[in-house]
Hints:
The structure holds two protein chains of two kinds. Chain A is mostly helical.
Amino acid sequence: MRRHIDFYLATMRMSILEQIQYSVANYFYMIGMITEPVIYLVVWTTIAKQQGGMAGGYTVGAFAAYYIIWTLVRNMNIVLTPYAWEWRIREGRLSMELMRPINPIHNDVAFFAGWKFVVILLWLPLAAILSWIFKPAFEIRLMEVIVFFLAIWGAYLIRTMLLTLLGMISFWTTRVSAIFELYFGLELILSGRLVPMTIMPAWVQNLSNYLPFKWTFFFPIEALVGSMTDLQLWSGIGMQALWIVSGILILNLIWGPAIRRYSAVGG
Amino acid sequence: MPPAISVSNLSKHYKVPEREGGMKAAVTSLFNRKYRTVKAVDDISFDIEPGEIVGFLGPNGAGKTTTLKVLSGLLYSTSGRVNVLGFEPAKRPHDYLRQVALVMGNRNQLSWDLPAIDSFELQRSIYGIPAPEFKTTRDDFIDLLELKDLVNKPIRNLSLGERMKMEIVGALLHRPRVLFLDEPTIGLDVTMQRRIRAFIREYNQRWGATVLLTSHYMADVEALCRRIIVIHHGQTLFDGELNNLVTQFSSYKTLGVSLPNPEIDLSQYGEVLTRDGARVTLRVPKAKTSQVTANLLSDLQVDDLTVEDTPIDDVIDSVFTSTEEAK
């Protein structure tokens, strides 16, 4: 355990050092990334204004708050993509990582976790500018802040598990892009990434309760900007924990058979 | 003492899809896919004693790297038994991975954007190396490879040879007992090759590490390995001392003759391999070497005469060629 903590800290440190080296590129990346929520925000605030200042139960200020926090949650949700898995398997790049006495997934989790600290730092001025332009309405309790802090890391881990599992399909299919596109479509609708889940039809909301997606976007955002009770907040953290544990169990189950299929090409 | 590496009847076969070119064959392959079995490694056996440095030779596609990957635990074998330091590599136990290292000349594990010194720190955490031991080993290796002025530069700013030296340091910081080196000097200039060879020898002597080395540079093999294993088409052609390979497979010697008159035809004495001004290289059957040497000295005015074994490159080449012809 101590060795793992040491490894995580060292990898996160490496990641932070690397990202600082490319802070300008990171900033442009983040600016590019906020285009998506700004489009949603403009559309929904326009609709809300046309409907007398409210749409689907959200005021103009509430929409602004939702999508500004969305930008942070989205950045927290960036993990190693299935495309990267496809590349490391197809090109044999996984070989050097497999030679280490630690599962490469630990490396991915630690590396991207380190990146988050740089992301949060870079996000603050962007959030300030967006807030100045769109005037979000926040009513935040301390408990919501605590749960939000845990939930964004929970979201990060759930998405890591999901995309790692998707990426590992490359061990069997070599290419995984088509499946990733399908995943991306589902995530857009069922996670709260496109619109807050409460605006979605009832059947979509029901369906989303049984899937992991909404715990990666809607729940962390709502934990901070919504009006959940403490019970709802901690139940949400419980659901995140459930999905994380499920992901770890499935990963452990398929890791062995997957590695047996690795052909370590190249070299 | 049990062997450090023990391989018995190892085979690694791949099933690869195969089809003819063109649209029709592509569409047909959707419904009726044909496969071909490629025998990358086919029933090879050998033992390597602790502390031995063994050269693993063969042409491209012979099965060298595949064998190394099976031994390091990256690939599962199709059949046969493999034991390294008492472990079954395919199970990839962490205790095993902590005691071995695989260095591939064309693969890097250090962070491209950061100075090597930062990546070394990551290696320390991966292998759980105690801080004092890590510092001693790291500084020692940096001195041996003369890297002091380079460890603080980002890897991407280093030359190929400098990067390779850093990769080797990174791979050996945990002092592995077994080293699998796959073309460690590929693409490097002669000076850098020598440095790396000297370092490998030093590491082997100091820590008693077992080394299995593949290289297309015979200079690497001649400098480091007393014993070599030659494989071709996945099968062992030769396993023994390097000197014995020359005895077994080379029935010729090379004579270098310097003459004051470069116009003289020497083809009656042997096969003329090269002619560089007054210097002629002849290939003569080993059994006739003494006779030809005596004849040359008595028939002609000779400025200089050397008798050498056939260069190891040529011997290896002739081994592969003779195998191909025998097929």
